Q: What sequence folds into this?
């Protein structure tokens, strides 16, 4: 007797339909249900009102400053307030320039701001790199001391700095105006927060290639920290330009005064009667930094936001 063993019948493999997707992942991905965004008109109105209030708080003083600089004396003291000048008085700027040596004030402010900002940011970069990538003894205690100095108001060191500058013979000089303020824990910490997120593998690769610390800092670290360095530079520059207390203490002659001190000098010359020229002088002092902030505000906000997200 013979047994007929038949092979098992296998079902034919399904053929791919070109109209159907070939990747099952594309069909298995669940889709989120369509949700309708509900717009609340009352909430939107409140948001616009809050925005208008914030704009009014910050913009109205600036508008009043610029408009008063072009007003006649009678319109500044008029009641009700004269928001739009009827007669423009550009002579206020010429009178303010003649009443005080603003040319010398501008030169002094430019020199102290440029060199003070350059030295302060340079030291901040070197310090931040050392704390981020260099191993040395007492690194953590020194870093904590520098960060702790941020909790002290700047006026605490005024007397000590004045005595030191006096003993060095730097009173009424550019050295006395610039050098005591070039150590900034704020700028160092700002740049350090950006440097600490730089991948150490890239720095180590540069070290293996034979690059020294300065080469690594200049070619590898600084290009990655450029937004935060620019942000710190602008913040320090604003502070140097608007500094009032230290230049007032360390200088005693008009040829070494800076612009904020020049405004006080102008007010003492004009008294409280000619507010048109005083407002014009204030515009001349504030306008350069306002223009810098207007053109660099995106970089400032972007640098701070990058540091906040990466830190």
A:
């Amino acid at each position: 007797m013979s047994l007929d063993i038949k092979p098992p019948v296998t079902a034919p493999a399904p053929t791919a339909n070109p109209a159907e997707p070939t990747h099952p992942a594309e069909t298995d991905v669940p889709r989120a249900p369509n949700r309708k965004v509900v717009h609340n008109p009352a909430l939107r109105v409140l948001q616009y009102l809050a925005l208008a209030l914030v704009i009014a708080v910050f913009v109205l003083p600036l508008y009043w400053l610029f408009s008063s600089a072009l007003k006649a004396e009678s319109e500044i003291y008029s009641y009700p307030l004269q928001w739009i000048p009827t007669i423009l008085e550009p002579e206020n700027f010429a009178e303010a320039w003649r009443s005080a040596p603003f040319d010398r004030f501008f030169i002094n402010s430019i020199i102290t701001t440029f060199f003070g900002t350059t030295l302060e940011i340079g030291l901040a970069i070197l310090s931040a790199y050392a704390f981020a990538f260099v191993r040395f003894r007492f690194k953590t205690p020194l870093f904590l001391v520098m960060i702790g100095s941020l909790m002290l108001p700047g006026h605490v060191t005024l007397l000590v700095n004045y005595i030191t500058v006096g003993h060095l013979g730097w009173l009424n000089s550019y050295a006395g105006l610039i050098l005591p303020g070039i150590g900034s824990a704020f700028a160092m910490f700002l740049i350090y927060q950006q440097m600490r997120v730089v991948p150490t593998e890239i720095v180590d690769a540069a070290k293996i290639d034979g690059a020294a610390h300065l080469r690594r800092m200049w070619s590898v670290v600084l290009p990655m920290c450029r937004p935060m360095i620019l942000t710190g530079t602008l913040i320090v520059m604003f502070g140097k330009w608007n500094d009032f207390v230290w230049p007032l203490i360390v200088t005693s002659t008009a040829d070494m005064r800076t612009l904020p001190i020049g405004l006080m000098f102008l007010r003492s010359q004009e008294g409280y009667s000619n507010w048109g020229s005083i407002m014009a002088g204030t515009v001349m002092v504030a306008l350069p930094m306002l223009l810098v902030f207007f053109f660099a505000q995106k970089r400032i906000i972007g640098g701070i936001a990058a540091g906040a997200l990466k830190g």
Notes: Confidence is low (pLDDT under 50) at residues 1-5, 18-27. The chain has 15 helices and no strands. The radius of gyration is 32 Å.
